[in-house]
């Protein structure tokens, strides 16, 4: 039986039903929004450009998102086939999207003046989407946050008057505000602990970072306030799911996981970044993720007026069109016991095997190990039959060969007998 400072986290067992519910959702929307949207360059703009609080203050003084429409956000997410959302309640710059009793550095002090978190939660809940809160452990505005090498101005400086215990009480207090004001919250997405950075890069698992935040206490608080909530792995102690970022694991991580990806390389709104990933690539990421039993969290950074920019909306619409036709190969689907050929990904749900082609096969599609198991083959998008050629006796490989494949991104639906 685990013991020690992280015993609670190690002993906690989240219900398999709750984890299954999360995994069935498969696709979510990440929303990075805050003062950095006015800088419109990158959510790390304060650190990257070594901005003082005074340099950054104009973004606070002019934060007035008059086009903010959470219903439109939720509509765009639902239209893209997304089943849940994760919102940055506070990012590293320390600015809070809700009226916190613990700081003046919140939306309440800006020209906009009103709570943003509540309306966003309500709009997504109204469409049946799950709600998650991202919350930064780092806080470049709080006077007691330690200077950690990531600080915008000071780099790594130990300023003895910074009291980590005071900052920790602030951090825990704000998490308590968030988890008691807005009803059921489905996931808590902390970001990020960094013990290795503080100890000159030497790995100190569960080290200073976890100690600074009192990660185990914070995890316990979260679970007490929101029974059934799922917590990610970025407190440096075991959580409910791991979070590969901006890459696709080459193999299934072997635990519940959620990949997070930007649409254009920037988490915050980045006005001049036109490098949006094509929908086809995002769809391939999604089927690769589901084939490895993961979820995909795709990010939009709303702009300084509170709107999703047209390029993001166009991308979400394209994903939504694909999901309208192919969602049954994603929602509630997962890895297959059959081994997919190199340029395919398999997802399976019940006796339906979905063959996602990532590259175009030369003439025929050879599906190893499926000889005699494929009763019928059709394109998923329109249900049209794919002529199946009986296994070629000259190539007794146990393959099933499919021919006459029409052009286009293909997902085949094959009712198969289980192995
Ligand atoms: O530093 C953050 C970054 O701004 C962004 O929020 C991503 C999203 O997963 N997390 C951190 C980088 O890993």
Automatic annotation (TrEMBL):
Keywords: Glycosidase, Hydrolase, Signal. Gene3D superfamilies: Glycosidases. Residues 20-327 form the Glycoside hydrolase family 29 N-terminal domain. InterPro entries: FUC_metazoa-typ, GH, Glyco_hydro_29, Glyco_hydro_29_N. This is alpha-L-fucosidase. SUPFAM superfamilies: (Trans)glycosidases. It holds the Pfam family Alpha_L_fucos. Transmembrane segments: none annotated. It comes from Nonomuraea africana. Belongs to the glycosyl hydrolase 29 family. Alpha-L-fucosidase is responsible for hydrolyzing the alpha-1,6-linked fucose joined to the reducing-end N-acetylglucosamine of the carbohydrate moieties of glycoproteins. PANTHER family: ALPHA-L-FUCOSIDASE (PTHR10030), ALPHA-L-FUCOSIDASE-RELATED (PTHR10030:SF37). One of its GO terms (molecular function) is alpha-L-fucosidase activity. It comes from the Bacteria. Its EC number is 3.2.1.51.
């Amino acid at each position: 039986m685990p013991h020690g400072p992280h015993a609670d986290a190690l002993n906690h067992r989240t219900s398999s039903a709750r984890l299954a519910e999360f995994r069935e959702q498969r696709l979510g929307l990440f929303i990075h929004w805050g003062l950095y949207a006015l800088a419109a360059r990158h959510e790390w703009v304060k650190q990257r450009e070594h901005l003082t609080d005074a340099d950054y203050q104009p973004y606070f003084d002019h934060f007035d998102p008059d086009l903010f429409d959470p219903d439109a956000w939720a509509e765009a997410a639902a239209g893209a086939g997304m089943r849940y959302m994760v919102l940055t309640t506070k990012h590293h710059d320390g600015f809070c999207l809700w009226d916190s009793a613990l700081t003046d550095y919140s939306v309440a002090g800006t020209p906009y003046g009103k709570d943003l978190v509540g309306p966003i939660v309500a709009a997504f809940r109204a469409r049946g989407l799950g709600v998650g809160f991202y919350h930064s452990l780092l806080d470049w505005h709080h006077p007691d946050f330690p200077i950690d090498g990531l600080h915008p101005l000071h780099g790594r400086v130990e300023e003895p008057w910074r009291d980590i215990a005071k900052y920790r009480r602030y951090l825990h207090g704000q998490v308590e505000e968030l988890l008691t004001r807005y009803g059921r919250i489905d996931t808590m997405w902390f970001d990020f602990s960094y013990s290795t950075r503080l100890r000159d890069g030497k790995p100190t698992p569960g080290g200073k970072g976890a100690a600074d935040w009192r990660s185990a206490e914070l995890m316990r608080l979260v679970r007490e306030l929101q029974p059934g909530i799922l917590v990610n792995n970025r407190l440096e102690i075991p959580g409910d799911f791991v979070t590969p970022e901006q890459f696709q694991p080459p193999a299934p991580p072997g635990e519940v996981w959620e990949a997070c990806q930007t649409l254009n390389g920037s988490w915050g709104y980045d006005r001049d970044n036109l490098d949006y990933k094509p929908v086809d690539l995002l769809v391939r990421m999604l089927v690769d993720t589901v084939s490895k039993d993961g979820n995909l969290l795709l990010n939009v950074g709303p702009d300084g007026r509170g709107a999703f920019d047209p390029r993001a909306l166009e991308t979400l619409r394209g994903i939504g069109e694909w999901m309208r036709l192919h969602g049954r190969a994603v929602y509630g689907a997962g890895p297959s016991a059959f081994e997919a050929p190199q340029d395919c990904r398999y997802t399976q749900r019940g006796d339906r095997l979905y063959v996602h082609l990532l590259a175009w096969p030369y003439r025929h599609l050879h599906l190893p190990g499926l000889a005699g198991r494929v009763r019928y083959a059709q394109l998923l998008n329109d249900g049209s039959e794919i002529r199946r050629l009986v296994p070629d006796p000259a190539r007794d490989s146990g393959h099933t060969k499919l021919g006459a494949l029409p052009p286009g991104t293909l997902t085949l639906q094959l009712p198969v007998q289980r192995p």
